[in-house]
Automatic annotation (TrEMBL):
This is HTH iclR-type domain-containing protein. SUPFAM superfamilies: Winged helix' DNA-binding domain (SSF46785). Residues 32-67 form the HTH iclR-type domain. Pfam families: HTH_IclR.
Length: 115
């Protein structure tokens, strides 16, 4: 799975840090809790200043948007997603599904082996 994820990130032909930050933004939205720069920095294990620099680039390109909620500035995916993002997330979903299926099979085999 990790090799498949690396291949997917490298194929985007963009800085991997940028891809991981964009992914963190998408994950926050998916979980129903938009994230700010500090939360992304913690998730990505990166300095907050680096995250902010990448966020500014992504926002300037229209890859994410910034919304102010109270005093927090949270990042969200754009209203209209880019076609290559849709393809990326579909492939990511396939990779995760395959990994989950393989882990489930391994868990079943381990449980049978214990019996």
């Amino acid at each position: 799975m990790l090799l498949d994820l690396r291949r997917l990130v490298v194929a985007r032909n963009r800085p991997s840090e940028e891809t991981f930050i964009q992914f963190a933004v998408r994950l926050g939205e998916y979980e129903g809790r938009p994230v700010n720069a500090a939360e992304i920095a913690e998730m990505a294990n990166m300095p907050r200043t680096s995250v902010i620099r990448h966020l500014n680039v992504l926002e300037a390109r229209g890859r994410i948007r910034a919304d102010k909620i109270g005093r927090r500035v949270v990042r969200r995916p754009p209203q209209e997603d880019f076609p290559e993002n849709k393809e990326f997330y579909l492939e990511l979903e396939r990779i995760v599904r395959r990994a989950c299926s393989a882990l489930s099979r391994m868990d079943t085999l381990a449980a049978r082996h214990k019996e």
